[in-house]
Amino acid sequence: MARSRFRLLAAGLASGCALLAGGTAGAAPLPVTTCLGTTAQAFLFAQDTSGYTLAPGGSFESGAAGWTLAGGAATAAGNEPWYVNAPTDSRSLALPAGSSATTPSVCVGALDATIRFFASGPATTGSSLRVSVAFTLLGQKVTMPVGTLKGTGAWQASAAIPFLANVLSLFTASGTSQVAFQFSALSGNWRIDDVYVDPLKHK
User: Fold this and answer.
1) Which terminus in the chain has less CB density within 10 A, N or C?
2) 22-39 pLDDT, tens per residue?
3) What distance in Å separates the CA atoms of residue 64 and residue 58, rounded to the nearest whole number?
4) Mean pLDDT of 70-75
5) Residue 112 forms part of a structural domain
6) Is residue 186 part of a domain?
């Protein structure tokens, strides 16, 4: 059953990419949209000029409101060193080994393409943080890994990670869909901070 669902997802993603590329012959492409809010060039210090929207509660300055925390994950003192959300920020999310944290549902459209965030993990062999996207497909909840970070012993900005499930919004009447992002400390104690989503149309 799981393999069948992922085959359907892959087919849907492929179809969505074709539509984004210009639609099928003889038919107008489906409308695409974004439902994210105000954007900021949060990663300009890393020569990334894209506009990003902060995920709900993604700065952790007011706790982790709306997030689902497991395995001892909790907000703690200490901020990523670039202070991209605000210079007065002072909090981040601690993820002990084996713990996880999941964002509230985020409304995305087909043009909301990637996530990017800050993370710190130990520079030890096997230290890793898994990033997954969770969504509903054909009435079934699916959680799909989309990236893994290795610890460096210091804060790092992640790459812009495509989460793919945004393409499913092409097949909804509203042109949007709901997803959530999960961060799992597979090995080592981690911190994450300032979780952003990138609306592609703002590039």
Assistant:
1) N
2) 443 343 344 456 788 889
3) 8
4) 98
5) yes
6) yes
Q: Three-class SS of residue 182?
A: strand
Give residue 54's region: left, alpha or beta (phi > 0; psi -120 to 50): beta
For residues 173 and 138, give the distance between their C-alpha atoms in angstroms, rounded to a whole number.
Answer: 15
Backbone angles phi, psi at 6, to 5 degrees: -70, -30
pTM attached to this predicted model: 0.84
Mark out the alpha helices in the chain (DSSP H runs). Answer: 2-20
Residues in the chain: 203
Q: How many CA atoms are closer than 13 Å to the CA of 113, on its beta-carbon side? A: 14
CATH number of the structural domain spanning residue 128: 2.60.120.260
47: which residues sit within 8 A by CB, 6+ positions away? none
Cross-strand bridge partners of residue 114: 162, 198
Residue 164, domain member (yes or no): yes
Give tens-digit pLDDT for 84-96.
Answer: 999 999 999 999 9
